[in-house]
Amino acid sequence: MKQFALKASLATAGLAVALAVNPVAAQVSDDVVRMGVLTDMSSLYADINGPGAVVAAKMAIEDYGGTVLGKKIELITGDVQNKPDVAVSTAGQWFDVDKVDVILGTSSSAASLATSSVAAEKNKIFIATDPVSSDFTGKACTATTVHWVHDTAALANVLGAAVVKSGGKSWFFLTADYAFGHALERDVTGIVTANGGTVVGSVRHPLNTSDFSSFLLQGQSSKAQIIGLANAGGDTINAIKQAAEFGIGQGGQHLAGLLVFISDVHSIGLKLAQGLKLTDSFYWDLNDGTRAFAKRWSAQMNGRMPTSIQAGYYSSITHYLNAIKATGTDETGKVMAWMKANPTDDALFGKGYIRKDGRKIHEMHLFEVKKPEESKGPWDYYKLIRDIPGEEAFRPMDKGGCPLVK
Question: Which of 12, 113, 233, 282 has the fewest CB atoms within 10 Å around its CB?
Fold first, then answer.
């Protein structure tokens, strides 16, 4: 009996050593960690996320050595076309048939909300790098979704408040007519009125609008001091360019680009964009870490510079892989629990953490677009006004209405 006990003890010890050396061999599904990037590859948001998001994702995987726990990391990509039905069908295919462990994306808020619902139903992780609606950590929050880069509440808290406090008391909104635009108008309206301002009207335009003339004329006739652009990407670019053609600004009105990316400023040009205030969570020229990442990314993107969303892919994938490495598994519950329990810290967004409602908290920044004569070269577009702590920028967790925190 003693000999048997000794053998059993040695066997147990051997198993413990084996697990310590390779703790997850049997716990990574299909022996592959498979990630899916589902984003806008060809439409109005392609410069914001799109092919550049795929490049950032590949960089994160390469920097991790291409494997985690000795298992290969695979990446598949798809074009969501900003359509919720495409998001639903693709997410279902990827999770059920292609055995994808996590989806990142998925462009517009409407499409991303659809992906989030599918992920929750199938108990899979969705990292919402692309969308901006604060509903992801509000009424539509789920236990398997993380909202990574920024949201409409933070944009309102930082930029909306700054514009009102600088004298922009009366507002008129040009709003993209879908989930993101509605959420941005709602959140900025709340901040404007809370700071003593008023909203005199709004008009909603279809997604991917080429002609803003009728919408801009309504904003001009409102006599509001601020015409707030509750849209993004190509819509923001077209609205700003056409506003200049209509002479908006010469009559004393000002545009507030409520979600502006560096790719937008590049398309608009400093002559038209100069003086525009904006808020973002990342800028390529912010510090040595952001510059190093941007230089590598730019070399694969014809000299362009990354947006905050594209940087978000790199940052979020790194944290996700760290979770798998630490927990010894790609099982959704354990990975998500680790991601929320452990702080984030990378060169792109600095120190941060993920709240119970799925909101990733990190520092935000208020910028002003430089005048042409202030720019020292290509993509040198922003000057920093101030940094805003994440707890100040993002909506308090108990104010969003997320069922997970009631």
Answer: 12
Edge-to-edge strand order for the sheet containing 364-369? Answer: 277-280, 364-369, 382-388
Closest CA to 306 of 334, 324, 287, 285: 285
pTM of the complete model: 0.91
Over residues 217-254, the pLDDT tens digits come to 999 999 999 999 999 999 999 999 999 998 888 888 99
Neighbours of 70 (CB within 10 A): 10
Mean pLDDT of the 265-294 span = 96
Report angle CA 120, 327, 24 to the nearest 5 degrees. 105
| Residue 395 backbone zone (phi > 0: left; psi -120 to 50: alpha; other: beta) | beta
The CATH architecture assigned to 29-150+286-358 reads: 3-Layer(aba) Sandwich (3.40)
Strand partners, 346: 350
Conformation bin of residue 107: beta by default, left when phi > 0, alpha when psi is -120 to 50: left
Amino acid at 108: S
pLDDT tens for each residue of 186-202 = 999 999 999 999 999 99
Average of pLDDT values for 383-399?
96
How far is the C-alpha of 309 from the C-alpha of 132, rounded, in Å? 10
Q: Among the CATH numbers 3.40.50.2300, 3.40.50.720, 3.30.70.1400, 1.20.140.10, which is that of 153-280+364-389?
A: 3.40.50.2300
